[in-house]
Amino acid sequence: MSEKRLDEIESAIRRLDKIDSDLDTLNRKGASRIPARFLERPARSLGFDRVKKRRGDPIWKDGKGNSVTIPSHPAGVSVALREKAILVLEGITFKQREILQDEKNRLLKQKTEFNIRK
Questions:
Q1: Whole-number Cα distances in Å, 88 to 60, 76, 78, 93, 116
Q2: What are the DSSP calls for 22-90, one per residue?
Q3: Which of 30, 69, 73, 95 is the most exposed place for a label (fewest CB within 10 A)?
Q4: Residues 6+ apart with CB under 8 A from 81
């Protein structure tokens, strides 16, 4: 295994940790009090891009056909809509978290084998 592969392993581990921290932050804040700018980082870390919209709240889409509307202003937006947006993000995060956790375990095993061979 080359140094490049070790860098990829560590990068995947950092990405998993970042998504974990974003999800924890979402859970701590509570759906009704999260400003949209605060939801942007978790959305971006999950591969979502903001799609500009002429009126209304922006829609975020990823390349896999998932989309979520993240309300722009906490005041004038129903709590139910904000909670729905967060639940969609959390659901996608949960799926991605499982995939990344499996990948992390596999990569850590490879890294250990590489270190043993050294």
A1: 11, 20, 16, 8, 42
A2: HHHHHHHH-GGG--HHHHHHHHHHTT-EEEP-SSSS-EEE-TTS-EEE--S-STTS-HHHHHHHHHHHH
A3: 73
A4: 69, 71
Question: Could you say which DSSP state residue 6 is in?
Answer: H
Sole residue written with tokens 């043993």: 116
- What distance in Å separates the CA atoms of residue 78 and residue 104, rounded to the nearest whole number? 38
Per-residue pLDDT of the chain (118 residues; tens, 9 = 90+): 577 777 777 777 777 677 667 666 655 655 445 555 556 666 666 667 776 665 666 666 766 666 666 655 555 555 555 566 666 666 666 666 677 677 778 877 877 877 777 6
- Distance separating alpha carbons of residues 97 and 7, to the nearest angstrom: 20
Burial of 83 (0-12, 13-18, 19+ CB in 10 A): middle
